[in-house]
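look at this fold:
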Amino acid sequence: MTPQEVSSNRERVVTVGSGWVMLPLLLVLLFACIGLFIYAVAQGADNRPFAVPLITSLLAFPVIVILLTGLFTLQPNEARVLVLFGAYKGTVRTSGFHWGNPFYSGGSQSAAARSGTPQAASKADTSTPRRPRRNKISLRARTYNSPALKVNDKRGNPVEIAAVIVWRVQDTAMAMFDVDNFETYIRTQSESALRHLASLYAYDNGEDNESTLRSNVDEVSSALRDELLERLAKAGVTVDEARLTHLAYAPEIAQAMLRRQQAEAVIAARQKIVHGAVSMVDMALRELAEKQVVSLDDERKAAMVSNLMVVLCGESEVHPVVNTGTLYT
């Protein structure tokens, strides 16, 4: 049997009765049942036949109470999955006051798992048995902040990475029946996708036209969202947004990588300084030649170039030396 055949649940949107119609009707029946019971007792006190109204009131009372348990409310962006004796009957997505079959059972999702906190969810995973609920699922957008994970990037360097994921339930039937606990499933798959993504990109200093985690944040975030959409589709969950919130080298190599980055910055700065100094020397020589300020032979040009390069490229302040003789003495 293929996984597709196993996970064949799909959401069916259904409508149920209005609670505003059923509530007054059931209350009228309840008061009528109580009145019938009082009437039967009064008949018995007068030695009149009372068995039929008494039995009728005693049998009708628990039935009406059970029917009252079919009343439920739904807030905006909330749904209820209807399960009758183990069979999926549909999902109610309309907010308001409703009445449904009182035998629609609760699901396996515990109250702690719906609270949204990792501590409560971890307790819900281990607690047995789980308290039945009315299968209410929030359809609101929710966020999951993953912890900082230590993984190896494409070059094998250990890095710390974390992300924030905005998700919401799209198919309530898949979320309820195709996975044991969809919130736990989301956390597990999100961390797995984040680890896999980090292994596909280098932290920085990639090859020519190579995307990196630090330089191509938008591309990396888009790739993370696409992978999460594929992974979480099995649980009926869609991902609205996924963004990296933390990215750094692991502490054991952070100092070494910082020194490397500093060295690269120094080299890049030196290259610009040398390039600028050569341009300035060339401009000075051309200006002197064009304006015929002084006629320099090759030896004097070499000396001037040397002095100008020392002045322009030196880190400390240069103190000029005044030559009172000639360049040859």
